Amino acid sequence: MTHTSPSLKDANRVRRLKDTFTRHTVRLGGVMVLVTLLLLFFYLLTVVLPLFHQASMTPTGRFSVPTPATPHFIGADNREQLVYALDDSGTLTVARRPLQVDQVATVMLARNLSDIPRPAMATVPATAPFMAVEIKPGQVGVWQLRFRAEYGDSTSVLPKLRRMAAFPLPVILDSSALRQLALAVPDSLHGENIAPVLVAVTHKQELVLYRSGRIERHSLSEPVDNMALSPDGQRLFVRQGSTLTVWRIHGQQMAVRETINLANVVESPVQAMTLLAGGRSLMLHHQDGGLSQWFDVVKSGQPSLTEVRLFQPAKGTFVASPELHRKSIAVADEQGGLSLLHATSEKQRYFAAMLDTLPQAMAFSPRAQALITATDGVWQWFAVDNPHPEVSVHSLWEKVWYEGYAEPQYVWQSTSADDTFEAKLSVVPVIFGTLKVALFALAFAVPMAIGAAIYTAYFMSSGLRKVVKPTVETIEALPTVIIGFLAGLWLAPWVEQHLPTVFLLLLMVPLCLLGLSMIWRMIPRYVRRRLPDNAQILVIIPALLLIALVAWQLGPWLEHLWFGGDARRFITHELGIGYDQRNALVVGIAMGFAVVPTIFSIAEDAIFSVPPHLKSGALALGATHWQTLTRVVLLTASPGIFSAVMMGLGRAVGETMIVLMATGNTPIMDWNLLEGLRTLSANIAVEMPESEVGSSHYRVLFLTAFILFVFTFVFNTLAELVRQRLRDKYSNL
């Protein structure tokens, strides 16, 4: 009978405690990793979800503003302390919220108009709006309503009405009264030197243009029903019954650009028209409650006004008012319905029956945080919560027809120097760029890395393997910013200057390796046995160097013979293929170089770890080394090789600096190897520092991070399932 000594019992007890502690520590670490991933997932989700919240409109006040006549144009200041109205008598009324009797001021802008029931007037909605009013028959005055903030115990906004001294008033347009008036102030952002553009229709059916002190007249054959002038003063839309005429204004001259017979295009007659923010889109109001969007589309090299979208937001007669800075528009119909649309995203953001009657005037506040309606002196104030109208499932994932584009496209363009710019936030181009760069990187890296791993683990001598494997793995420690720097500043220009040489190398190197392998197999076996170990390397390396030298010498000759001495020019001008210096070919080579060590290391370990008895047994049964490799070793190592490829894919998808520096960062969708791209990670790195916190741009960038996170998680999960199935399938070999 044996007895266990006390010291041995203590040692076993300590070992069990250590094992238990280690097991629980590893388990806790795994749980914490999972918890961290879940926290990251839900944090990204909390930032992204507000993008898809429905808009809301809440009535917050009803008050009376005494105006001498029906309001023609209403609005509020930027801080929403003051409201104002320009009515049909030419009187401007300004009131303070909350309304009190002594806080209402009126200014009569139109004078000496006893012979005219209603003066012609026009407005330019803005934070500081412009107003043009017929002050007496044939003469027009232009004013700007400004708001000045005074800071004390509380901020108070004071109105200031400025008559535009830079404009030579009175402007004699005609000896008779005017029927309609349109105004544009294209230089309103350039200080005090403002040059308004006025277009008027007289009772003599004349269309009159005034700009920079000059007048031009055109006779019209029919009365004008509606007229709209673009904010830049370069396009005038005139509707005469079912005929819509687009006038082009250049300098002090105007001419008809095109005429559209609406009866042949639209089903319901038009009753009014409105310009969206920026003045590029014309919204036609139809009698059946429809609202159609029109903008210029280039056809045969010339712009043509084209119907792009049709909405049905109302029933019967309605009033529509656009936002000042976005493509949203509010619609109120005669049945009390109030809806909120966004033209580009093609989404109705809100609808509710909230009105008693059809408003006489309606307008957004400058920041679009409130909507104001006026009916028979009763004003209603609606608080608007619509922070991200331009984002929808349609705008993110489908083709969208943007203003100025010839057709619907996937576009990512978040910023521009143009004040009328509309953010284009389709995530499809950056997802496409991510998959494109990953595909090209793997196409370059996988054959090289897997081939090197097979040779190193299966054919190479152990002594040389101890040198080669750590050397290749050391490359993985090279900072990616260095690889990107070299790829962008050295490799990209070199590839551009030696395109034939590059393509010859891509073609000749694989052919050379295949040819050498065939020649090696043709050598008798007894001769190969007498050759030293790793003799293949002594042949392959000089052969590859020779191939590189041949490609270097043939490249310029082929370029001169086939491409007229300039391959880049031939590709772009003769073949019509786009070429960017920093393109997918360059980033594929650079990224492939960075991914090779990852794939090589894991795949080599998997192949080298195949039990020796499997290889020995196969060889003993008469299989050749190649048969043993393809039918035993690679099948057994396939889970590890698959994991290596997936690790390389994950590295390529998540890489930032190489893509950032080695591509043109152009979010285009084209499989062209010679054009640039933009990936999810590079897009976040480039644009996140410039995005406004909480803006649509900011949240869509988080959405792209969320997509990258989900893509990586799902793809890795599927890869692990495939790896496990391969492991179970070949574990009994």
Automatic annotation (TrEMBL):
The chain crosses the membrane at residues 25-52, 437-457, 477-495, 501-523, 535-554, 584-608, 629-649, 698-719. Pfam families: BPD_transp_1 (PF00528). InterPro entries: MetI-like, MetI-like_sf, Quino_amine_DH_bsu. PROSITE patterns: ABC_TM1 (PS50928). Residues 431-719 form the ABC transmembrane type-1 domain. The keyword Amino-acid biosynthesis does not apply. It is found in: Cell membrane. SUPFAM superfamilies: MetI-like, YVTN repeat-like/Quinoprotein amine dehydrogenase. The keyword Transmembrane helix applies. Keywords: Membrane, Transmembrane, Transmembrane helix, Transport. It is a multi-pass membrane protein. Gene3D superfamilies: MetI-like (1.10.3720.10). Belongs to the binding-protein-dependent transport system permease family. This is ABC transporter permease subunit.
